[in-house]
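Hi R.,

Here's the chain you asked about this morning:
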Amino acid sequence: MSLSKALKFSLLVIMLATLGVGQRKAMDERKTVPLLGKEGPFGETSGSSQQKEAASAKVRPISITTSGIAGSLAIHMMRDPSFSSFSRGLSGADRYLGLRLTGDEWGALFLITLGCPDVTDVPRLADEDRDEWERRYSLRFQEAIPDFPTLARVWDVFIYVGFKPEEIGKLRNECRRIQSNTSDEKTRLALTKLLRACDEASNHQSGLLFVPD
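And here is the predicted structure, written out as tokens:
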């Protein structure tokens, strides 16, 4: 190869190398430029930082407050108001009355109006099993309202409670006594449901079974 051709070849290699570096630099710059430019929502300028802060300020975790008492009691009219009878299925005039005592209504009646102890008032002991604690709590619950022994048997919304036909009158009288001395809305709603159930049971010489659901 002649000297002139060698020089031309060297110059061509240098030009190509310089061009390649320039292209890579341009590509790198394009990669670092955010979508919609440096001033856009994905940019790294001070303005975009403010946008990010403003956006994050709008995204706040929603605080969910749980209130109320879980569970409810479905009121059934039954001649034999017991769990064993209920488990065999309803028969004859036995039926669900379409009345349900909600957890909130139960709490309003027993915890607020009558002042019965909540479960937190009777903590479970370290070496105490569940059955023993329930026995102890139910006893404390019933002792808190000695003037309402029939109602006091409804010490939880997760238990079956039966009232025989001959007990319906007692249950009604206790509900009426409370009704005449309270203005609490939820308590009165609970008592209205209980009194309706008592009237229905009396009309059919039947009892009542409260079924947790």
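One quick note: The chain has a mean pLDDT of 80.

Cheers,
M.
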